[in-house]
Design goal:
The protein is mainly beta and 227 residues long. It has a domain at 32-139: Lipocalin. The protein is built from one helix and 15 strands. The chain has one helix spanning 8-28, and strands at 34-39, 45-50, 55-60, 67-73, 79-87, 93-98, 111-118, 124-132, 141-149, 155-164, 167-168, 174-180, 187-192, 195-202, 208-213. It has a 15-stranded antiparallel sheet that branches.
């Protein structure tokens, strides 16, 4: 019996067939899902106008063609996203900042920013963010995440602290410590502020057989982050 093994060329043809079908349906029903698409000299997408009137633009850094700026607008021209990106010298993202304010009768969105730092092994060590719901008012959502690693590059702890209007959001805040099986890379137990929040068991081949978890905020009133 013959066996058909798909090749990359088959996948490309199938993708084009799906695009053609989408285009045929849009013509048949008189609706354009995508009205216009633009590319730069490096064939990177720089503009896209959608059938519902919304649009996206993309800009890239001239040296390494990393995403530098992205915008998204509603059909009426209001800015939904106005994102700027920065990177370190080896390409790790350092920041993402959205300067678009919440718009509309029921404002959705708002300004936000993310920041990241890394260690000498390019492992994420801290991440922070804020969200500003209304123009000039940071409806005060802030988030701080810190990670630590062991000698085997395994996560040893993860601490997240979220504040709203200066008050800790307990269900989104935690300090987790990770314990691993001796001589193996399998996670054995996760504790949150000293309380067991997860226990993991494996068979002799290393396959996970059992997970025992409980809500990590069930017995915790305070989050202590490691500096």
């Amino acid at each position: 019996m013959a066996v058909w093994i798909p090749t990359p060329e088959d996948e490309i043809c199938r993708a084009f067939e799906q695009i053609q079908q989408l285009w045929d349906n849009s013509i048949l029903h008189g609706y354009a899902y995508i009205a216009q698409v633009g590319y730069d000299e490096y064939e990177q997408k720089v503009f896209c106008a959608y059938g519902n009137g919304t649009s996206n633009t993309w800009a890239y850094t001239p040296e390494l063609l990393r995403l530098d700026h992205m915008t998204a607008r509603t059909a009426t021209g209001n800015m939904m996203f106005d994102n700027a990106y920065t990177y370190d010298l080896i390409g790790n993202i350092l920041s993402l900042t959205n300067d678009a304010v919440a718009t509309g009768p029921n404002p959705i969105g708002g300004k936000y920013a993310h920041g990241y730092t890394y260690d000498l092994f390019n492992r994420l060590t801290t991440a922070n963010s804020y969200w500003e719901y209304e123009e000039g008012i940071q409806d005060d959502y802030t988030n701080e995440l810190t990670l630590g690693y062991g000698d085997m590059h395994r996560i040893s702890y993860k601490c997240q602290e979220q504040l709203r209007d200066g008050n800790i959001v307990q269900e989104h805040s935690y300090l987790k410590d990770y314990a691993y099986a001796t001589g193996r890379n399998h996670i054995q137990q996760i504790t949150n502020n000293g309380d067991p929040s997860g226990t993991y068991k494996y068979d002799k081949n290393g396959n996970m057989r059992n997970i025992t978890e409980q809500p990590w905020f069930a017995n915790s009133d305070t989050v202590f982050c490691v500096g």
